[in-house]
From TrEMBL:
Reactions it catalyzes: ATP + protein L-histidine = ADP + protein N-phospho-L-histidine
InterPro entries per UniProt: BphY/WalK/GraS-like, HATPase_C_sf, HATPase_dom, His_kinase_dom, HisK_dim/P_sf, PAC, PAS, PAS-assoc_C
Residue ranges occupied by any PAS domain in the UniProt entry: 144-198
Enzyme class: transferase
Domain PAC, chain residue ranges per copy: 88-143
Classification of source organism: Bacteria, Pseudomonadati, Pseudomonadota, Betaproteobacteria, Burkholderiales
Keywords: ATP-binding, Coiled coil, Kinase, Membrane, Nucleotide-binding, Transferase, Transmembrane, Transmembrane helix, Two-component regulatory system
Membrane topology: Multi-pass membrane protein
GO MF annotation, one: ATP binding
Residues covered by the Histidine kinase domain: 298-513
Protein name: histidine kinase
E.C. code: 2.7.13.3
Compartments where found: Membrane
Amino acid sequence: MPVTTQPSPERPDASPLLARVGRMARVGGWTWELATGEIIWSDETCRLHDLPPGHRPSQREALGYFAPEARLAIQTALDQAIASGDAWDLELPLITATGRRIWVRCQGEADREPTAAGGQTVRLVGSFQDVTPQRRLWAELEGHRQRLRALYESTPALLHSIDTHGHLLAVSDLWLRHFGYMRDEVIGRPLAAFMPADSAAALIVRQLPLLWQDGGCVEQALQLRCADGRLRDVLMSATTEYDAQHQPLRALASLVDVTDDLRRQGELTRERSLRAEIEHHAEELRRLLNERSEMLDVLAHEVRLPLNSASAALQSASTALEGQAAPVLRERLARAEAVISQVLGGVDNTLAAATSLAGAASVATQDTDIDTLIAVCLADLPREARERIRIERQSSTRTAWMDMSLMRLALRNLLGNALKYSATSTPVWLRVLDVEEPPAIVFEVEDQGPGIAEGVRARLFQRGARAGQAREGTHGLGLYIVRRVLELHQGRAELARSDASGSVLRLVVPQGAD
């Protein structure tokens, strides 16, 4: 049970002025006489403990008001002061007589008297100050600081702060994840340590001085090295914090990673350059193709017309000498006519491969009379060759949709190929057939030659392929052109049969509604 006593002149708050100042500052005093164990509290100290003025506690009671977690600290401070005269200054939690929990600043020092051993503590003197408001404010400020730090570190942005020496003070979680570091790997280290040499030199020599001088920067280009060694291009914007004397304290920076944007921009630049180069080459190619087309036109005019005239003259001479000239002369005329026909066929194939067939995807077709097409093809052949052709019509169709000039070339090549590789005493058959599903007109050319070698059949219609020794002429264009003509008609050229008794080559020309 606390004992109430009357204030005495010896109490620390005996002066009314000092007592008033103590109340205002919420500071109370106390003494502890070690010889008698007497503890004297000032009135303000009593009020801090929610006790009436003049209360004099025992040592056990006085220490008992400290919170359990603080008793070891205060007991240690008292023991050291008694033993060696050390002063103390502690902030400790205290529980008052009414159960209030407050924080007090407890200070004390020792009064010592000289002895033969060097000195002895005879008294402890100290003060209590209620610092609960300050502690509450500090706790609130610390809470705000922790929340701000958490907000800073968890913000979805690449943030870091640096001191005036360029050392990292803090970084956001996204900064760490983006560059692949742990927090303890970067805090306290220079920002320049995470940069290549040239970028680090620019930061130290130019960018940081301007940052402290100008108070910030906008989109400064930097390169930062990731934990795995990769370099990332970033743009740094920062603002500087100053103290009361306008001296720089730190800078808060926000980064934007532009590595992918720069890569895409570089790819776009390269693509534009490549496109311009391709367009230049295409223009050169068009110019060359135009020149080639003009040369082919000249070739067609300067070569074909004289050859056609020569062929017509030879045919007229052969007709005029029919039954009058010697057999040797007629044979020579026939040979000359055959040679000119072969040359004309080669020129036509070469021109066709170089002009209308090269690169085309389709042709414009028209309703063509089939018998007229066959007659024109036969007229292109020498007379002796025409006499070997047998026409077999298994179709009553009179017209078909096709490009007559190209089909004339394809049929002539097919007939010429069959005539060349079969004995001169054997006929060559040209058959015309119908196919209903899907609708198509079919031309078959059958010879009685030795057949086509097994190894050649798969590539028979390819450019340069030959069915036998020297077959397909000098350049192997004949059957290649046949295939291309049929492709332009959305049809196909195929080998229907080939054995020791001869070969059958087939042209299928679709006749769809379109």
